[in-house]
Design goal:
heterotrimer; A mainly alpha (132); B alpha+beta (383); C alpha+beta (253); A: mainly alpha; 3 helical TM bundles of succinate and fumarate reductases; extended; C: Ubiquitin-like (UB roll); Fumarate Reductase Iron-sulfur Protein, Chain B, domain 2; five-stranded mixed β-sheet; 9 helices
């Protein structure tokens, strides 16, 4: 007899399975991914700061790194991740209290539009000095 | 029990509540045949008062019992019978007299009051009568019956088509069924086997080598993507095509047509039937014409065949119990026909017969018993 | 009506703990554009797949048995038509009563899978036992009100589409999920309700109740009955917060 198991098991793959899904799911997936990236960044950040233990020489090295092109591009990416996660987070605070939850899709696109605008401006702020 | 439509489920509930060990095998989901696709009308009896007063009496009595037993699956909408032309008006006298005789509470109201109650009604309402029709959720009623039967010890096997009904020395011996859930063959030994397969009763009976005169009669129904009425609206005339609009949840369901089919499987939905439903429905509620269609569907009623010439509407809507003892299969019975509204009564009569055969003395308790909610039903043991 | 050459990929397999683990079988058949997926499945049953298991009952979106995943989206099989699939219009609630103006000799392909996050009885048939247990926990009552006025069945048809669409239902086995929580709120709002409000509130106000929701709102997007369980969940949260803070319910009481 091949009686099937009736108890199901937790399926975490569903958190990253946007097939057939709509805006709300993409927002959710984006928030998980940016959240994990920010968590990873905290450790990178601490590792980079630890250079300061080497005294003034370390400080000079840090400033050199920080003004290098790869690091500036990394900063630009970081800003993008922060904006997406942060502004979507603000949306979730309101939606989660029941404010405008039936407009959650529109709020998501509004948050993303705001993120894009702020992103464009900060990218200019970060990269413009490097050009000169 | 073979079959878990309203007939099979109601009988299983009755038998289990009398303490009789019962098993139900059903080839698919419970109520996946005629019952699930019925019109969702809990009859007041109004539709039968003129032509079939006996059915009307049964309907109103069972209507009241079912409201008490399973309030969670009944929408207490009430119903209206409306006359919209001279022909309908000519039927009014006979209709009211029929209601009086059958004990169907009927209150005639002025046409303008009817239109205040149901603003969607046509302006040409000439007469209107209120009756205690209601709306039923047939699927969940069947689950409630089965859940209650399960609580009383009955075993229910959905997705378990019957493959053989073994008859030995003039007696039914056992049933072999293919349990698709557990991928096994079930061999159920029972002194009494009841065939409640509805339009498929002929096919099941053939497995036992006996015949059942069942004539599947198909009907098309059209569900609209809008609820245009709050009460059941019937045309005040002898039953015909498209003469009733039942509101259920967010839909209004127009029914029905009637034509004979070979089997209950793969019934087509002829587009001209859908059009006719909409035309006839629009005579009662003009908004029917503009409302988008949600679904058009068809089901086969299992009518007891008497006169093969007719289109089905003349066949008996009552039910018949065939005791196949005289055909050489003692203990094998077929229950054919009937209505969801009167299933409890039908079950009581059949269960009395079963008790007689088994020599069990147990009174029927289903008049008083409340049913468990539908969500207590389980598809398999330990589920 | 136009005929369509339809290729159907069905995730089949015996009873199991979840939809995963079955195998895909492919069938090709000629189908009328007006057929619903239930007609397609019945045709497969009558032909190449006699033991095919799927659930159905009312064929008009009231019983809530026939929900499955059509190309990854939760749909009621009874409302999804062959024409709608061929026209690529699965976003529309129903394919009935529409003429999609398909070209002669149209072809289409579709993948059918059982609901996610449900144990499977076999093939496309989901086992609703666990789901029904959750409805029981909130004393779900599908009749909204009784009395003099005409009453309604609750619009929720307990089809499980929202449960399948929700990623949290998938990862937290105890999470009550959208439909049960929406029905808990319905129970609280109903002036003629049966059942216990205290039990409904207790069920909602626990770690696996409303607080588990992560605002994905796929429940609302997937609902074939327009119930908006996502909104109901947020309202239930607001109610619980007000209660915790000791605020009175609105002046309506």
């Amino acid at each position: 007899m091949s009686e099937g198991e009736a108890r199901r098991r937790p399926d975490w793959r569903a958190w990253f399975a946007p097939r057939g899904r709509r805006t709300g799911m993409w927002a959710f997936v984006l928030n998980r991914i940016t959240g994990l990236l920010l968590l990873a960044y905290v450790f990178v950040h601490l590792a980079v700061l630890s250079v300061l233990f080497q005294g003034p020489a370390g400080y000079d090295r840090l400033v050199r790194w920080m003004s290098s092109w790869p690091f500036l591009l990394f900063d630009v990416a970081l800003v993008a991740v922060l904006l997406v996660h942060g502004l979507n987070g603000v949306r979730l605070v309101f939606v989660g209290l029941g404010a405008g939850s039936h407009r959650q899709r529109e709020w998501f696109w509004a948050a993303m539009a705001a993120a894009a605008a702020v992103f464009a401006y900060t990218t200019y702020l970060i990269l413009a000095p490097a050009w000169r | 029990m073979i079959g878990a439509g309203s007939t099979g489920a109601a009988i299983a509930h009755d038998l289990a509540s009398r303490g009789i060990r019962t098993a139900v095998v059903e080839r698919g989901e419970p109520a996946s045949g005629t019952t699930g696709r019925n019109h969702a009308l809990l009859h007041s009896g109004g539709r039968y008062v003129v032509k079939d007063p006996e059915s009307a009496v049964e309907c109103i009595q069972e209507n009241l019992l079912l409201r008490r037993a399973a309030p969670g699956v009944i929408e207490e909408t009430g119903g209206l019978f409306v006359a919209i032309d001279d022909e309908d008006l000519a039927y009014r006298e006979a209709f009211l007299e029929g209601c009086r005789r059958a004990g169907v509470p009927a209150e005639e109201i002025p046409p303008d009051l009817a239109r205040r109650l149901e603003p969607g009604l046509t302006e040409s309402v000439r007469a209107a009568v209120r009756v205690p029709d209601a709306v039923i959720d047939p699927y969940r009623l069947v689950l409630s019956w089965l859940a209650t039967a399960q609580a009383n010890g009955a075993e229910v096997f959905p997705f378990t088509p019957v493959e053989a009904v073994e008859v030995r020395a003039g007696r039914v011996a056992h049933v072999v069924a293919h349990d698709l859930v557990h991928r096994r063959r079930l061999r159920l030994e029972a002194p009494v086997v009841i065939n409640a397969a509805g339009p498929w009763a002929g096919r099941v009976a053939a497995l036992a080598g006996v015949e059942v005169p069942v004539q599947p009669s198909a009907g098309v129904m059209v569900a609209l993507a809008a609820r245009l009425n709050q009460r059941v609206i019937n045309r005040m005339r002898p039953p015909g095509d498209g003469d009733i609009i039942v509101p259920q949840r967010a839909t209004s369901i127009i029914g029905t047509t009637s034509w004979n089919v070979e089997s209950g499987d793969r019934i087509p939905v002829p587009p001209d039937h859908v059009r006719r439903m909409i035309e006839e429905g629009a005579k009662l509620l003009p908004a029917v014409r503009e409302a988008p269609v949600l679904a058009a569907f068809a089901a086969a009623r299992p009518l007891v065949a008497g006169n093969k010439e007719s289109d089905g509407r003349e066949l008996s809507r009552g039910f018949q119990v065939f005791d196949h003892g005289r055909d050489g299969a003692e203990g094998f019975m077929s229950v054919v026909g009937g209505k969801t509204t009167t299933s409890r009564l039908m079950a009581e009569i059949v269960a009395d017969r079963v008790c007689e055969k088994l020599g069990v003395q147990q009174e029927c308790r289903t008049r008083e018993l409340a049913l468990l909610p539908f969500h207590r039903f389980r598809w398999r043991e330990g589920g | 009506m136009a005929e369509v050459e339809l290729t159907v990929r069905v995730l089949r397999g015996p009873a199991r703990a979840s939809a995963a683990g079955g195998r895909y079988e492919t069938y090709t058949l000629r189908a009328d554009a007006g057929w619903s997926l239930l007609d397609v499945l019945e045709a497969l049953q009558a032909g190449p797949a006699p033991d095919l298991m799927y659930r159905h009952s009312c064929h008009h979106a009231s019983c809530g048995t026939c929900a499955l995943r059509v190309d990854g989206r939760e749909r009621l099989a009874c409302l999804t038509t062959v024409g709608q699939i061929a026209a690529g219009r699965l976003g529309e609630r129903t394919g009935h009563g529409k003429d999609y103006r398909l070209p002669r000799g149209a072809r289409a392909a579709v993948t059918l899978e059982p609901l996610r996050s449900f144990p499977v009885l076999g093939d496309l048939a989901a086992d609703f036992a666990e789901f029904f247990g959750k409805l029981d926990a909130v004393e779900a009552d599908l009749v909204a009100a009784r009395g003099e006025e005409a009453t309604h069945f609750e619009h929720c048809i307990t089809c499980g589409a929202c449960m399948s669409a929700c990623p949290i239902v998938a990862s937290d086995l105890e999470y009550l999920g959208p439909a049960p929580l929406a029905l808990a709120l319905r129970g609280l709002q109903d002036p003629t309700k049966t059942g216990s409000d205290a039990r409904r509130l207790a069920a909602a106000d626990q770690p696996h109740g409303v607080w588990r929701c992560h605002h994905v709102f796929e429940c609302t997007a997937a609902c074939p009955a327009g119930v908006d369980p996502g909104q109901a969940l947020m309202e239930l949260r607001a109610r619980l917060v007000r209660r915790r803070l000791g605020w009175r319910e609105g002046a309506r009481r």
